[in-house]
Known about the structure:
The mean pLDDT is 92. This protein is mainly α. Helices cover 88% and strands 0% of the residues.
Amino acid sequence: MDVDNRVVIVLAPIVIAASWAAFNIGAAAIRQIQNFLSREA
């Protein structure tokens, strides 16, 4: 079963963009949660 290169070429930028966005959103969310918890304590 050979994977068509066009599928990889189309999906690669989408996967990279999605993972980059998830990383940035996740980092901001963790920072916000840490700030909230430190204010509560």
